[in-house]
């Protein structure tokens, strides 16, 4: 009804939580306004490579999928499954979730999500490779074992719905393990990957998303 007041939602960042408030507006055609307390929005913007407008945009989508403002691992897996309906994405989603959950709290906050996406989507090659290393370093001991590498590769097979037998060994292990001591260090990982054209180009797909 013309002239009828509409109650719309605005987003406010405050300290470590994200608050939702209602705003009354007469404008039926305008999008719900987004308002962030300067210090909180500024903190996320300065700590990541996202602009304030990008943060607002992502938060709207984040709240659509996660009205509570946090993501549990079960919810994260269900979101991943929507993007990869032909495969079993649960194990790979588990690895990504663990990599985003730096505090090992069992949940991902909007801050966690934005920090991770900032590296993947806008980070330098070195930053992206360090993030990838931590994904493969399943037990987070600073080293990638051959089994860890194979476990993540197997999860990728499942993610893509590839029904072929999972690899029991990988030639990539030998390429990455420069001193043949059975484990891959961060330096070995970056040394090899930063010189591999295919790996570099795989990260480039994120460059045009914004």
Automatic annotation (TrEMBL):
Keyword Calcium: yes
Keywords: Calcium, Metal-binding, Repeat
One protein family per Pfam: EF-hand_7
Residue ranges of domain EF-hand in the record: 88-123, 124-159
GO molecular function list: calcium ion binding
Membrane-traversing stretches: none
CDD domains according to UniProt: EFh
The name this protein goes by in its record: EF-hand domain-containing protein
Gene3D superfamilies on file: EF-hand
Cited InterPro entries: EF-hand-dom_pair (IPR011992), EF_Hand_1_Ca_BS (IPR018247), EF_hand_dom (IPR002048), Recoverin (IPR028846)
């Amino acid at each position: 009804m013309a002239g009828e007041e509409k109650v719309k939602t605005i987003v406010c960042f405050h300290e470590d939580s994200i608050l939702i408030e209602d705003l009354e507006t007469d404008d039926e055609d305008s999008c719900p306004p987004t308002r962030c307390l300067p210090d909180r929005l500024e903190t996320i913007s300065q700590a990541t490579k996202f602009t304030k407008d990008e943060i607002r945009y992502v938060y709207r989508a984040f709240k659509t999928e996660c009205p509570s403002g946090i993501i549990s691992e079960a919810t994260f897996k269900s979101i991943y499954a929507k993007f990869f309906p032909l495969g079993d994405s649960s194990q790979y989603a588990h690895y990504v979730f663990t990599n985003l959950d730096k505090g090992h709290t069992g949940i991902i906050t909007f801050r966690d999500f934005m920090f991770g996406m900032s590296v993947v989507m806008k980070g330098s090659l070195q930053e992206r490779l360090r993030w990838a290393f931590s994904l493969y370093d399943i037990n987070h001991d600073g080293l990638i074992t051959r089994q860890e590498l194979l476990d993540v590769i197997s999860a990728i097979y499942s993610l893509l719905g590839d029904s072929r037998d999972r690899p029991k060994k990988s030639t990539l292990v030998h390429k990455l393990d420069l001193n043949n001591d059975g484990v891959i260090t961060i330096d070995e990982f970056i040394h090899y990957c930063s010189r591999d054209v295919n790996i570099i180009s795989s990260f480039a797909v994120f460059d045009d998303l914004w």
